[in-house]
Amino acid sequence: MPWRFAGRAEERIDEVTLESARRWGIEAAGRYNRLIFAAINAIGEASLLAGPRPVADLSGVCSYHLRSARRLVPAGHRVGEPRHLLIYRVAENGVVEVLSLVHDRQRLSQAARCAHREADG
């Protein structure tokens, strides 16, 4: 299934990758970025997906913790403890819309509602 970014999702991924580079270095940021895109591709290929969860009070919106995608990245490139979740939905035309990337300490329902509003403009 194809996917696309909606709202500020791409910007948010760039922010997280940049912060990762500042804190942990370029190589670690590259590993985290590979993990993010492995998760996005897994969402697009639903048969590879284990671990999505519906977001309460937002019909059709789901979250997917990056730790669920660790097995999709080669062992030498895995992130030890991923701390982010992708927020996404499947549009009526079947395209997966990535709404945001949020830290797992954020209140998921609040972050998802904000991402949903941004995507719907």
Per-chain topology:
Elements: E1 3-5, H1 9-24, H2 26-44, E2 53-54, E3 61-65, E4 84-90, E5 96-103, H3 108-120
What are the salient characteristics of this protein?
alpha+beta, globular, single chain, 21% strand, 121 residues
Plain-language structure description:
The structure is a single chain. This protein is of the alpha+beta class and 121 residues long. The chain has a single domain, classed as RelE-like (YaeB-like fold, 2-Layer Sandwich), CATH 3.30.2310. Helices cover 40% and strands 21% of the residues. The protein has helices spanning 9-24, 26-44, 108-120, and strands at 3-5, 53-54, 61-65, 84-90, 96-103. Strands 1-5-4-3-2 form a five-stranded mixed β-sheet. The longest helix has 19 residues, at 26-44. It is globular and about 35 Å long. The model has no long low-confidence stretch (mean pLDDT 91).
Please count the beta strands (DSSP E, at least 2 residues each): 5
Main sheet: strands, sense, barrel: 5 strands, mixed
Radius of gyration: 14 Å
Strand content: 15-25%
Strand order of the largest sheet: 1-5-4-3-2
Give a short overview.
This protein is an alpha+beta fold and 121 residues long. Helices cover 40% and strands 21% of the residues.
